[in-house]
Amino acid sequence: MKLRHAVLITGLAGATVALAAGRPAEPHAVPSAGVEWTTVRPGLERGSFRYSAPGEGRWTRVILLHIDPRQFRLRLDAKLSEDLTSAVWTVDSAPPTAVAAWNAGQFNGIAPWGWTVMDGLELRPPGTGPLSMAIVADSSGRVRLVAPDSIEAMRAAGGVMTALQSYPALLTGSGAIPPQLREPGSGVNVTHRDARLALGQRADGTLLLLLTRFDGLGGLGAEIPFGLTLNETAELLRAQGALRAVALDGGISSQLLVRDAADTRTTWRGWRKVPMGVVLEPAP
Fold first, then answer.
1. What is the distance between the alpha carbons of residues 95 and 122, in angstroms, rounded to a whole number?
2. What is the pLDDT of residues 58-94, one digit of tens each?
3. How far apart are CA 46 and CA 131, in angstroms?
4. 29-49: per-residue pLDDT in tens?
5. Which of 98, 129, 263, 267 is buried most, with the most CB atoms less than 10 Å from its CB?
């Protein structure tokens, strides 16, 4: 499987270079408006636009979900093999009640990294890292993106039903991009391009999920992990009004399912199976 993926990536990379040589570069601009939004169901909208970044990021399709957390509940969904030795969750594992589902944060083997609370039960304690951030949903359904220095206080206060810790933070405070995403030598690869998955939050509490896909070669190889830098991802989310944001597990793990009121599924699959995903379900 890994060999097949490597061959496919190599072939598409060569084709992409050939296309780039014969096609003028499109302008590099961060859209702040003009996204065409489609209502999936009340409280859930889907948007999409083409984005041109340098290099292999030239052909990037950005998919956005705008989520009103008052209408939905966010929870974790896990799936392992029967012998508990491998991760097997994909968006196809999401329950029929899910209106959307996507893969969670980074993991090691079958264990998610960092603070993990599932259905009110803490499975893993918080991890440490200056660029980590937690996505927390309490018993009322309120969702917050929590800085690492505030995690312990929230943990001690109780009432947490869902918690997922990931890294790196893309936007902090009131929309500041961490300098580590721009400055080489700060522990983050600032030039690496990849397929991205991230979650942001606006000032009104609504959520923005961002997924990128390679959009060259007529849509062939959309799952190939060509795309944006972390800084570009942060800029896109900020342009859409996010004040806080964190990267989830991108690359070949990134995947998304959206199901409308007519039970029509739209799916962006990944190559890698993961131990845990995030499920969005209607609020009780």
1. 22
2. 889 999 999 999 999 999 999 989 988 899 999 999 9
3. 28
4. 565 556 889 999 999 999 999
5. 98
How, if at all, do strands 121-124 and 107-108 pair?
Answer: unpaired
Residue 157 Cα distances to 149, 150, 154, 215, angstroms:
14, 11, 5, 45
Give me the mean pLDDT over the 15-27 stretch.
Answer: 39
Q: Give strand ranges (E) for the chain.
A: 36-41, 44-51, 60-67, 72-78, 100-103, 107-108, 111-112, 116-118, 121-124, 133-138, 143-146, 160-166, 169-171, 197-202, 207-214, 242-247, 256-259, 265-268, 276-282
> What is the residue type of 128?
T
> Across all residues in the chain, what is the average pLDDT?
88
- Token pair recorded at residue 169: 């933070």
Q: What type of residue sits at position 17? A: V
Scan for tokens 């090691």, then name that residue.
108
Bond preceding residue 225 cis, omega within 30 of 0: no
Is the pLDDT at 171 greater than 90? The verdict is yes
Phi, then psi, of 155 in degrees rounded to 5? -65, -40
- Helix H segments across 22-59? none
Cα–Cα distance measured from residue 243 to residue 51, given in angstroms and rounded to the nearest whole number = 21
Cβ atoms of 268 and 225 closer than 8 Å: no
Parse the chain into domains and list their residue ranges: 2-114+163-282
Q: With a cut of 90, say whether residue 108 has pLDDT above it.
A: no
Assessment of whether the complete model's pTM goes beyond 0.70: yes
